[in-house]
Amino acid sequence: MAMAGLYRRVLPSPPAIDFASNEGKQLFLEAIQNGTMEGFFKLISYFQTQSEPAYCGLASLSMVLNALAIDPGRKWKGPWRWFDESMLDCCEPLEKVKAKGISFGKVVCLAHCAGAKVEAFRSNLSTIDDFRKHIMACTTSDDCHLISSNHRGLFKQTGSGHFSPIGGYHAEKDMALILDVARFKYPPHWVPVPLLWEAMNTIDEATGLHRGYIIPHSYSVIYLDFHYKLLTSALP
Amino acid sequence: MAMAGLYRRVLPSPPAIDFASNEGKQLFLEAIQNGTMEGFFKLISYFQTQSEPAYCGLASLSMVLNALAIDPGRKWKGPWRWFDESMLDCCEPLEKVKAKGISFGKVVCLAHCAGAKVEAFRSNLSTIDDFRKHIMACTTSDDCHLISSNHRGLFKQTGSGHFSPIGGYHAEKDMALILDVARFKYPPHWVPVPLLWEAMNTIDEATGLHRGYIIPHSYSVIYLDFHYKLLTSALP
Q1: Which stretches make up the Peptidase C83 domain (chains A, B) (predicted)?
Q2: C-beta separation of B38 from A29 below 8 A
């Protein structure tokens, strides 16, 4: 068998825990029982592989747009309307994304352009406690899904800046499930939230700005209610 | 918003139960606790959308090949070796598959060609009891995954012949989880196994032959052990 090229990578564990390992399955079961995998079902239903090595931002966004059941209002193939990465051709030319990837700000722009309402938090303008509240709000419902923009180095993974959706949360162990869209490289995996925060609290050299996290919503969700829940969850 | 074309379909329920509904989540939790979702974790990690309206056979197979960690031995994009539908260009020309879909026999041929060991069962040469034993063997391990070839009509769904992997089993309720690769149309859903069997026990007009199910394996799995388990599971 030809061996040129790379066949996946071994997931550095620790710090990550493979979703399909015995330990990963146990975390998953406990998190379901504790109600912090509610968003998982819709999100995993649209889990996809980034179709180009630099399309992590586009793949993460198209997963979330499909999970939120946002109608792109135009055809994909045959009679079907459906978000494919190739349709996210707003804010930044696709050829440029293919060559160099996409910045945090441009992904936010794209989400707006595709018809989502978007909350975006750069790590220098947010805190780990806010991040946890947002994770909790999104994993206990299926109205919103977080997209993390982080640096892979903190997880001892090869590569640098990367986008992936967060698929669930284990509150007691304070671990989040990363649904890595670079599935040809690493499988889905659990990571400690403090380390994930540290990985988001890094600077993208291409823009000189901090990374962070993005929460797209459907306009059909009552937006104020979401904020109300976030606010009241912060009360003693 | 432009409304030409179709934005998904409403899943006819019953007979199917949406994976992300409350009832679907409950079935899922019970099935995990009973050990018949073991294969789910790897398979769902590679869940994908068929990239063309007639590529259900190719998408189902590429999901399973990736879940089995079979190395295609050639590059996909960048340095990465990874199964994409466009690489399943054996047994039947891709242009023909794009126009007309693919037959049961050609999917079996393709799985062999891609480097898998394959068991294939046409419904007229198998029984529902054998099918249940195979479902049980595959959902309690992560060494094999079933691909069903069935007729959508039995589920009151639009369309005709369709391929999709089976993602899990609820033994007590005798229901199987279909990870429908036509995700632009229907979400993943649970169906009663007797109805699934009936849907597989139909004739493909293009070939005049019965549909059925396909089980690809990795050569790295000790094949005889699998058969031994199947055999002993049939003993009183």
Answers
A1: 1-221
A2: no
